[in-house]
Design brief:
The chain has 197 residues and is an alpha+beta fold. 15% of the residues lie in helices and 22% in strands. The N and C termini lie far apart (51 Å).
């Protein structure tokens, strides 16, 4: 039995959004809906400024809030992956409301909850996840050996009770201000329209 874990090095991320695009392509996510999002944050004071990035998706939590919120038993955790059983999901949205980072959405066409499942179908046949395979900066890695976890990799929590299995390196805690519990990832998280300000 494998226990997949994702390690994301935010210090390597260049903000290219290739992971988002690859994920949308892999799962045909509807327009305006995302399983993966890349947040950005401008820090510092001119002339010493920088733009930081943070790829974020379902963190495959231990004791996942979405799993506990689902009264249809449509969510389970197997091999380290929090999975949604489409045959049991009725699209009620309890899982969306329960997620502290907004990693779940209800597909407006299928009326079924969707989120990152670590591209389980790819991992099962020896392929990398779509995001890992596409990342130009090698900022995303999937591991199965706990000994491979970098010492500086920690869970990105948006709520004190969160227990993320996905771990981040160098994630700026101030990114949390871009997330709202119970609200799915939004294109506005990137706030491209404010750059001119």
């Amino acid at each position: 039995m494998k226990n997949y874990k994702m390690i994301i090095d935010a210090q390597k991320c260049v903000g290219c959004h290739a992971c988002e695009v690859a994920c949308k392509q892999e799962f045909k996510a509807p327009l305006g809906y995302f399983r993966t999002v890349t947040l950005y944050l401008d820090t510092g004071i001119f002339p010493k400024v920088k733009r930081e990035f943070l790829p974020l998706m379902c963190r495959q939590c231990e004791d996942a809030h979405c799993l506990k919120a689902c009264d249809k038993n449509a969510i389970s955790k197997v091999n380290g992956i929090v999975k949604i059983d489409e045959s049991k999901c009725d699209g009620c949205g309890n899982c969306v409301s329960a997620c502290s980072i907004g990693a779940v959405y209800i597909n407006p066409f299928s009326k079924i909850a969707e989120k990152c499942n670590l591209c389980e179908h790819r991992l099962e046949i020896g392929l990398k996840t779509a995001c890992e395979a596409t990342c130009v900066a090698n900022a995303i890695t999937i591991i199965t050996n706990e000994d491979e976890i970098p010492k500086n990799a920690i869970g990105f929590k948006n709520h004190p009770e969160d227990k993320p299995s996905t771990l981040h390196i160098g994630a700026n805690e101030k990114m949390k201000k871009k997330l709202q519990k119970g609200r799915s990832f939004s294109p506005l998280n990137y706030e491209i329209y404010t750059w001119a300000e």
